Amino acid sequence: MNHCRHLPALLREYLFPSGCAICGRMLLDSEEAWYGLCRDCMPGFAIDQEARCALCGRPLISEQGRCLSCREREGTYHFDRVMTLFPYTGAYRTLLRAYKFGKHRALGNFFQEKLIQGLSLFPASLLRTSVWIPVPPRPGKIKQTGWDQIEYLARLLERTPQQERGLPIYRCLKRLPSQSQKELSGENRKTNLLGRIRCTKKVPPEVVLFDDVFTTGSTMDACAAALKERGAEQVYGVCLFYD
Ligand SMILES: [Zn+2]
Ligand SMILES: [Zn+2]
Predict the structure, then answer these.
(1) Ligand minimally distant from the alpha carbon of residue 237
(2) CA 129 to ligand 2 centroid distance, Å
(3) What are the pLDDT digits (tens) for 184-219?
(4) Binning pLDDT at 50, 70 and 90, where does residue 242 land?
């Protein structure tokens, strides 16, 4: 733990207190301020090491290999495998909402670490060279929320101390206007986005997409389809939450 690196976060918390994103308690030391979570709430967000769906990464309950929703889905995905980390319910939901809508930016430090931990759930042999690609926001979405929270994570990943030179980020996906995925049912979500996401440059054979919430997988799927048209052979993904 690099406490010196965390000191500016403590100063910021002292001047402009935001408190713990879950319980609201005052954040008392540099580590708490860095992650935006108090020591009592932080351990509640460990990633379970349980068996996961070979496609979407949701934990498997009584199934083997693939989860029920992947089995019931018609056709295959364009991505090869996604890791999804936390259920989008209860305290987990509070956490993302505090980041997205409450602009609790310190949580970005917490999320970027979880994305990297999520990647480590893939078998090591799968990922030799990883280029990270953010899922692009829907045009107009930034106007609604006031900021691009995935781009903020991209910038943190670029500076991550886990890798000597930070992680390579490719901002190569562009999203054309389409209806909000939230307003659509599963089947319509699938067709709404295919072809509405474009890849603007050639990409390496192995890439990792990252995003906040995985619902039907249609957004990741459309991104993967675009990446495979521009040179990707294996497309993996890490998503913080599954819905
Ligand atoms: Zn707390
Ligand atoms: Zn699945």
Answers:
(1) 2
(2) 25
(3) 776 677 677 777 899 999 999 999 999 999 998 999
(4) very high
Ligand located closest to 59 CA: 2
Whole-number Å distance, alpha carbon 32 to ligand 2 midpoint, is: 34
Cα distances (angstroms) measured from residue 45 to each of 37, 116, 187, 196, 217: 10, 14, 32, 34, 23
Tell me the ligand closest to 43's alpha carbon. 1
Please give the pLDDT value at position 45: 92
CA 54 / ligand 2 centre spacing (Å):
7
Burial of 3 (0-12, 13-18, 19+ CB in 10 A): exposed
This prediction has a pTM of 0.88
Say which amino acid occupies 53: C
Instruction: Report, at the CATH architecture level, how domain 50-242 is classified.
Output: 3-Layer(aba) Sandwich (3.40)
Locate CATH 3.40.50 in the chain: 50-242
